[in-house]
Amino acid sequence: MFKSFWGSQEQQAQPHPQEISTDSWYPPSVVSSTSSSRPPTSSVTSSSNFSVSRPPDRSNSFSNVSPAEAAGIIAQLKDKSLDELRKLLSDKDAYQNLFHLLEPVKTQNRVRDELRNETLKLTRANLEKEPRIMELRNQVTVFISIQFSLIPELLSKFLKPSTLLLRGCSAKSSAQLSWLLSKKSCTT
């Protein structure tokens, strides 16, 4: 059903092989779309007299171009002759030269260079801080190992009075004392 519905339009939208330059470095879809400034707009009329046309395929790269930037690009291309435009399509170097002359490309290149320079500065600053970070890490490791080595000593220091107290008491009084201590620790 859809094939017959879109069939006539698809046939018209397809470029003829003899129209595409074989020495172009662009894909055929790009070359065929540049042969006309407008996309094909043939339509099929249905039985209810509505005109239906297929939306043109658009690249996502054009969606980020502002109208002012597009006007600048068009102005650059407007001054070119037909031969120069054909050369842009077939010669990658000519295209790259024109591409790098466009103001949005210059701006993006400038921003890219600034970001690269800032990244290099941050990387250098981080590398300069690396010895200090390693020194602090070593200090923390030493501090932690010292603290862990003191734990048994501190534990024995705090357990010594309670063990002496428990030795001097009977079993009944030690149970009461232990109960009182646990009750006291639960309330605090």
TrEMBL record:
Residues 27-54 have a biased composition (Low complexity). GO terms for cellular component: ESCRT I complex. It is found in: Endosome. The keyword Zinc-finger does not apply. Residues 1-24 have a biased composition (Polar residues). GO terms for biological process: protein targeting to membrane; protein targeting to vacuole; ubiquitin-dependent protein catabolic process via the multivesicular body sorting pathway. Residues 1-64 are annotated as: Disordered. Keywords: Endosome, Protein transport, Transport. Its main location: other. InterPro entries: Mod_r. Residues 78-141 form the VPS37 C-terminal domain. Pfam families: Mod_r. The keyword Iron-sulfur does not apply. Belongs to the VPS37 family. This is VPS37 C-terminal domain-containing protein. It comes from Olea europaea subsp. europaea. The lineage of its organism: Eukaryota, Viridiplantae, Streptophyta, Embryophyta, Tracheophyta.
